[in-house]
Structure formats: structure tokens, C-alpha cells
Fold:
Amino acid sequence: MKKNLTAARWILCLAAVAVSLMVVSGAQAQTQNKAFRLAHTDWSSSVASANLIKAVFEEKLGISCKLLPMDAEKMWHSVAEGRADAMVSAWLPDTHSMYYSQYKDRVKDLGANLKGTKIGLVIPNITLGRLTAGTGIRNKPYIPIDSITGLKQHADKFNHRIIGIEPEAGITNKTRKAMEVYGLEEFRLQEGSEVAMMAELSHAVQHQKWIVFTGWLPHWSFARWNLKFLDDPENVFGGPGSIHTMVRKGLKKDMPEAYQVLDRFFWTPEQVGQLMLWIQEDNGLFPFEKAMRWMRTHPEEVANWIKQEKRPHRR
Structure:
């Protein structure tokens, strides 16, 4: 009788251990199989970097990656709340300064993934007619303005508009402030999408119409047209900056392989510019395929991102 009871106890213990192992392994499998959630905005650079990370995760690491398009404020909020695992589109120190001050304690900053950004008001730097006159001297641009301070006296020619993007974008907030600082009461900020803004620019360049718009680097438009930033003597838009990678708290423990790639991810304005141009070749319809192409043509950079040792500090 005692032997039967002992055997029964052993069976119950073994069953309990087996159930525990199944629960643990099931939880691990669920974590491993969970799709990585990457938030991004509609900006060309953000679309390019997000699709590149997705390509690296899925093709090199076997990690399913779900892209979550949203505006800039929701992008920060989603990572802070843990509804997104990461973003690689945090423009610092100026463009997203208000979001950084609000959410910096609820996200982890992995440092810059690109350095050398710039934002501001931009105009075409294109001459009327031929590039040079008969004397060989370069003709002047058809919009002869160098500074934001020069916009007021030409408000009529600009049709009293500054062409912008979505209202939640950091550059939109900076532009509203610039309009106050420089006394541009006669102008209105036409908010919309990047696609709509680029369509306006293309039409203006083609017909040599006056246009001023919210621009940033890196961006493919600077490779397609001759553009220039207007001087900003009051420094409303700030100086050169960088794009940072932000991840949710606990990501390193939950998804260490993905975390490490994000920690090592770093590229140059020229490299992201190339990918953005490729994406624009098909009017932005196939960004993932273009990211795959970029990955195949830059094997050394990708190999550095997926190495096991920690990347050099880059803050």
C-alpha cells in the first residue's frame, strides 16, 4: 500500500514538473515567435529605415517584423506605452524635443543611428532659363531670397503659403514658432502629407513658380532638385542633429537578438539617401523590395549590425 502511495506521489510530482516545463517552454516560444512591432512615420527617411530593419530582421534573423505607420507623437507614445517595441526615427535634439522631454523616462535611447540631419524652410535654388548667360556668368535663381527674413516682402509671390506636412510633426511645430518669431502673419501654413508637399514642389519647379516649404535632410528631393535652406538667424529650427533609435523598456530581456541589431544599427545620410531614391523610383510603392536590394548591395554594413559583440559607443 505504501509503495503504491509513493509511486503515485512520484507520478504527481513528475506530472507537475512536466506541466511547468510546458508552460515555460510555451512562454518562451510565444516570446520568440511574437512579431516585432516597429513604429515609424510617413517621412521618406522613416519609411526607408523601417523597411530596412524589417528586411534585416526577417531575412537575416528569422524574426517577423510588423511595421506600424503613425504620426510622430503617436510613435513616441506607442513605444513608451509598450504597444510598439521600437522606433528608429527619433529626430534629436530639436525636431522631436517636445516628445523627448515628455517620454524620455519611459523609453530607452540606444543612441544615434544617423548623424547630420537638418530641418528648416526650403526654396528651389533654380535659375530662370539657361544656367549661365552669354557672358558665362551664372544667372540668378528665380527666387532671389537667402533668409527667412526675406519672405515677408514677397508674400504675394508665395501666394501667402508655406507648404508643410502633418500637424503633429516636429518640423510643423517649429514652423509655427518661426512664423511667430519672424512675423509672418500674412502667411498660412498649409498642412498635409509629405507626398502632397512634394507634388507641390515638383509642379513649382517645373513651372518656375515661387514656393517655400518645410524641408529636411536626409531627403531624396535634394538629390532630385537644386534646393537650399533659408538662413535662420534666430535659430528657431536649431542646428545639425541626429536620428536616434528608441526602444521600449524590457526589450533587451524579451528579444535580445532584435535589441542587439537595433543597438548596432548605424548608417550615413548618403546611404539612406540612396535607399530613398530607389523607393521613389516606383513612387514609393515597394519600399520593402528596395530595402532588400539595399541590404544585398551593402553586405558589410548588415554584417556589422548582426555581429554578436557590442558596437562602439556612438552617442
